[in-house]
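Handoff note, outgoing to incoming analyst
You'll be picking up this chain. Sequence as last confirmed:
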Amino acid sequence: MIITFCGQKGGTGKTTLSYLVAETLSRAGKKVAIRDDDPQASVSQIVNELRESGRTTVEILDQGREGNYDFIVVDTLPRLSSRVLIEAVKEADRLILPLKPSMVDIRATVPAVQMVQQNIRSVARAFVLWNMVKPGTKISRELDGLEAMLGLPVLKVAVPERIGFTYASLQGYDTVTVEDRNLLQRLVLEFLV
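Most recent structure output, in case you need it:
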């Protein structure tokens, strides 16, 4: 199964989420690879450093290289006109559009939703994921009302803003708290089922 994180806007957490989801699946006993379609190659750097220190079994899937994986997680660049991004959308089984809860981010996501709707395979499923949600803010309490603006189903599991998620991409998944691991497991189950 190919799980692709995409969107037009940078800074929504696609790279961190790609790593966290890949690691969550790997820790569940699945054979997982990450394909890095972003020229910055940030997720490749994260995984390669963690592999060198023995802190992950997630692999990097290079372009053109085949492998026998249960899951391939794809991190994409934030440019809708990219042929690479459009091809990633066309081949995905699950598409996740991470979105920070702000009106600027919501408005910037609408063109990405339209691109996904135009290119997604009929058997694939796409979702919006609220990411970096700041608990207690007014907009975080109004997220349900914003779903109608987006044009795609919104996952019920929202990812709160946590410094631990950032540390995980630097120091490995073992730095993620049990509570946050449970949240990531619920997130993965929600979009896979």
